[in-house]
Every structure is written in C-alpha cells, then in structure tokens.
Amino acid sequence: MSYLKIAFIAFLFPFLVTENKVAVVNFDQLQTYAAQKADDTLYVVNFWATWCEPCVKELPAFQQVQKKCEGHKVKFIFVSLNAPRELNKVQDFVDSHNLGPLVLLLNSSNPNGWIDRVDDSWSGTIPATVMYKSGKKVYFREGEFTPESLEKVIQSKNK
Amino acid sequence: MKKLTFISAAIIALCSFTGTGYQVGDKAMDFKLKNVDGKMVSMSDYKDAKGFIVVFTCNHCPFAKAYEGRIIALDAKYASLGYPVIAINPNDPTQVDADSYENMQARAKEKNYTFPYLVDETQAIAHAYGAAHTPHVFVLQKSDNDFVVKYIGAIDDNSDDPSAVKQKYVEDAVNNLLAGKPVNPSSTKAIGCSIKWKS
After folding, report:
1. B contact residues 99-138, partner A, Cβ 8 Å cutoff
2. Which of A6, A12, A21, B72 has its CA 20 to 30 A from that of A39?
3. What is the ipTM of this complex?
4. B175: phi then psi, degrees, rounded to nearest 5
5. Alpha-helical runs (H) found in chain B
6. Is the pLDDT of residue B12 over 50?
C-alpha cells in the first residue's frame, strides 16, 4: 500500500492507525512516567479498570478535559488496574474508546505494597487520581470527577 | 491552561465515602441485620465465638467474586476454632441490581454459603465500620461483651491468583489471635470496588 493511501485512510479513519498500545509496567516503572518527572508539566494519573463501572463512566470527562488541555503542559496517563491476563480486554477497550495516548497496565500483585506510596489516604477504591508536577505530588483524590471539577483542579495546579 | 474557562457550577460527584470508621483497637458495634434466610443476625447471638471475621462483600464486584471461594474456606477453617465468618452486603441495590436481596439469596444458595450473608440496608454498619470497598475485612476479637477490632484490610496479597498468594493476611491475623500473639500487619490495603452508597 502506498503512503498516499495510508495517509488517506488515516485521514478518514484516524482510529484505525492511531492505536494506543497498552504497556504493562510495575509500580517502580510507573513512577518514572510521572512521579519522578522533574519538568514543569502537570502529570494527571488516573487509576481505573474495565470492570470498574464508575471509572468507565468517568473516563469521558478525562478525555474531554484532555482535549481542552491540548497545547498546554498537561499530560494524562491512564493506569489500568486490571489483572495482567486481561491485557487484551484492556487493549480492546482502549481501542474502542480511543483512550490514550498513554495507557499503562499496572502489574503488581500486592497492592498493599504500593497504595500508600501513591497516597496514605487512599483506601484502594477506584477511580482515584493523582497529579504530579516537578517531581512532587500536588493532588490526590479517591472518587469520581465531572469534567468541570477536573478542569478546575487542573487549572488550580497548573498556574 | 489560563485559557480554560472557569466553570463555577462544578459540583464534585463525591461517590467515595472517606469517613474515619474504625481503627485497629477500637470497639466495634454489634448489628442486627437480615440474613438471606430472612432471620435477623447479631454477633451477640454467637455465645461461643471468640471473635469474628466480618467481611463487607457483594455479588457484583469482580474482586468480591474472586474471593468467594476463599471466604468460604475461611469459614470452613475458622468457624470451628471460634472465628466464624459474617458477610455483609452494604451496596445500594437500586444502583446495582446484582446486589439485590433476591440476588444475594441466589448467590448464597448457589455457592452453599456456610455463613450468614446479611444485608446492610441502611448502610449504617458499613459507615460505622469504615468499610470502603468490597471485599473489606474486619477481624474482631470478643473481649467480655466487646468486639475489639484486631485487623482491617485485605484477605490476602493476591486477588487475581489464589495460587500465587504469599501472605494470607486474615489467616495470619486469626492464627495469631488464637495463639495469643499480636497481629502483624494489623491493617493492609487492597484495590476494590467502591461501596455503592445511597445518595
């Protein structure tokens, strides 16, 4: 297939060629994506899972705000807490919902070892969202966002 | 980011309950809740119990489902040693039909639950205990007429794969209580489904 044809298909059906591949990471690796980034980008990390109804309901709010934040120093990372054996299921969800570009699957069998490292106040219930800037945690929340409430928090943390 | 319009009507959909609840060492309240057989159950009904394994759980949550067999095994092992399981479903069934009383009855029958599966209709017990998600375990030790919280948290360290479990938190806690030893760790955390609170 010629490049022209691929470009044409990409133009018509961008979701066909912009597949966001879900990477499987452990907790220490996850930290390098956001918590340990020293730059002045605001990293918004959302913990979700395909089985978590409130999470799935909340994701469009993130995608909506993500779109609004284009061109700004805000980066969204969607961290699935599905079991690693459910990688295909997560990938299918990501593809059909056009979630991304950065989606990770956290492969960590013992959450007791890392929940407190995200935030002491986190019971382990999802959805949960943590934000980092300049290598520091600037926000944590257990529970859902509306697009408005998410936008407000991002605005206040990214002045 | 300055371009983002400020929307003052932001009402945060607070769906998680982050109340304090019990800490290890607190005295837990007794309850009188309806079992799947229609009878009311209280901890004070168990004259010979040394304590209880109270599990907030439900039908629909994949984590709760993953632990069903392990909860049955806990009761099989510890009821005769004085620590029976009492399961409590705190979810608002108007939000999740799978967690309705009728569906609880069906699940208890299908899985041959050997322990009470109670409905916390007003959610008062889940609120008082500080249950946050399902499954969420509280191991209580009877001391005179009090029920003292000795362990709060997960059943073990691997929800997905029982064969890969390294630490059986609840079993370790009850074994230590039976041996008169301190419980360590006395609290753990796990990922779980949020309790569906009534709005």
Report:
1. 132-133
2. A21
3. 0.79
4. -60, -45
5. 62-78, 101-110, 124-129, 169-178
6. no
